[in-house]
Amino acid sequence: MVDAIAAAADLPVAQVRRAAMYSKSLGAVARVALMEGVEALGRFQLELFSPVAPMLAQTAVDVAEAFREMHGEVAFEWKMDGARIQVHKMADDVRIYTRGLNEVSGAVPEIVELARSLSAQELVLDGEAIAFDAAERPQPFQITMRRFGRKLNVERLRVELPIRAYFFDCLRIDGRSIADRPTRERFEALAEAVPASLRIPRLVTSSEPAARAFYEASLAAGHEGVMAKSLDAVYEAGNRGAGWRKIKRVHTLDLVVLAAEWGHGRRTGKLSNLHLGAVEPTTGEYVMLGKTFKGLTDAMLEWQTKEFLARETHRDQWTVYVRPELVVEVAFSDLQASIRYPGGLALRLARVKRYRDDKQADDADTMESVRRIYAAQAGESGG
Known about the structure:
five-stranded mixed beta sheet; CATH 2.40.50.140; D-amino Acid Aminotransferase, Chain A, domain 1; alpha+beta; seven-stranded antiparallel beta sheet
């Protein structure tokens, strides 16, 4: 529908998509686009207590690639494997939203209290909520997510599994939306509104050795890697923008499950071997990249069999094909050229890390990210 509105009004799709992200009414966006033009679409802004889908990152293989894509100084931030949160504050009225735009304020009262303590009267902040163990090491993602599924015994869980918030972006402050301002301006607003102890560690540098050291420090602290961010980028709500790149030690992709094969041996009766794919943006079709049954626990096998059968579209003797809805994070050693798969690429030594129940299929990595990893890999090997 967004594409249709843009075509009918002869306006850039990106501008219409941005307005639609901030507006509660697609009809209102259509009327403004058709009758008033592109400048009028700027009236649609981020509003308090109307959460928007978070900006997502593309993938970079390493720090060097991030510098090649983003010239000059680049902001590097620790990539924490927590739960993405969006905090909206109007005086003492604070609401916390997940990346799926669900309000979870009641589940994380310590973050609500923290936001109330900030001096700014109006704020919208983007950040991560994460739990730590007794040794001050980050808890696995699944442990952190226990805090978001509870409506009962919240105070008991608050003692057993305290959670912290770290913020990395400011989208609105004291009556004005700044999501469309460059990253450097949003960083300035964040520094004004949030003390350093509550901000994700950041290094702004043009030095590759300094950025690599910062990346290693993040890994040493138990985190996933770093985010690289262009200082000129605007906040692209709901989009996997080129202005943000995620860099991890191992290659990982968030892929969509297209089908699964029945298991053998002790996995008999369970759907096991996953068919993994990524969408091709130019066609909207999913491209298969390989299969894996590695990394699946007994609990995951039980769960996914039930979920796959609920999404079944058709089957043959060995395979159940499903609607492309479930997202799984897959770690792999590298990509290799393949004549077996239509996309010409296949995962090597793929292993399931976890299901991303916090993501929808539209949030998964695309074939553009896959090809970027392969191109960088070929460059490293001299191929």
